[in-house]
Specification:
single chain; alpha/beta; Rossmann fold; 17% strand; 224 residues; three-stranded antiparallel β-sheet
């Protein structure tokens, strides 16, 4: 039976992880959150008090860090040196560090082999910044999921408030704009709309509507 890969790219806060996870559950696919793997690397740098601007030290920390993933009932758990760090990698501090260190080629190389290996052996939905353009250029379905800065900032603000973090909406919007610029202008695997990708703007769509659209695209692809 043919293995199917679905690649979802897009800017920060577009809802990629939430939508990819729900879609994977409905299709019985494995969900691969590549951003969480980079976040684990970023968390290791933070814990070791390494500046994101110190490329040499960042690479040293990332080469020493053991980042792996486990699956339980099709749910991904990210392990850093054997510790499940899912509950520590969604802060704004980790987000900023992730955006900076993910621009370093050596950091990306460390995780690329693992990501491609998973996709080769399983039906997967993989989301990130360069999945369709770099990690899985031959994916059966490529999606570029986006939304306005205002929409993404509001979503992130509500998410952080629900977790008990003291955050400011304007600061989050500024961080998102700055991250968009870094992600789109980095030298290594920048955020782009991959060749053949279908653009979905979720600004005025519900999560369920986006999930249904991706499933429709998957059925259409199978029908040829």
């Amino acid at each position: 039976m043919k293995i199917i890969n679905i690649a979802i790219d897009g800017p920060a806060g577009a809802g990629k992880s939430t939508i990819a996870k729900l879609t994977a559950a409905k299709l019985g696919f494995i969900y691969v959150d590549t951003g969480a793997m980079y976040r684990a690397m970023a968390l290791s740098c933070i814990r070791n008090h390494v500046s994101s601007e110190n490329e040499e030290k960042v690479i040293e920390i990332c080469e020493e860090a053991d980042v792996t993933i486990e699956y339980k009932d099709h749910e991904q758990c990210v392990l850093l040196d054997g510790e499940n760090v899912d509950s520590y990698i969604r802060t704004e501090e980790v987000s900023r560090m992730t955006s900076s260190i993910s621009a370093y080629p050596k950091v990306r190389e460390k995780l690329l082999f693992l990501q491609r290996g998973i996709a080769k052996n399983h039906n997967v939905i993989m989301d990130g910044r360069d999945i369709g353009s770099n990690v899985l250029p031959n994916a059966d379905i490529k999606i570029y999921l986006t939304a306005s800065v205002e929409t993404r900032a509001r979503r992130r603000y509500l998410e952080q408030k629900e977790k008990g973090f003291d955050v400011n909406l304007e600061d989050i919007a500024k961080d998102i704009e700055e991250r968009d610029y870094r992600d789109m202008h980095r030298d290594c695997a920048p955020l782009v709309i991959a060749e053949g990708a279908i653009v979905i703007d979720s600004s005025n769509m519900t999560i369920e509507e986006v999930v249904d659209e991706i499933i429709r695209l998957k059925v259409k692809a199978e029908e040829g």
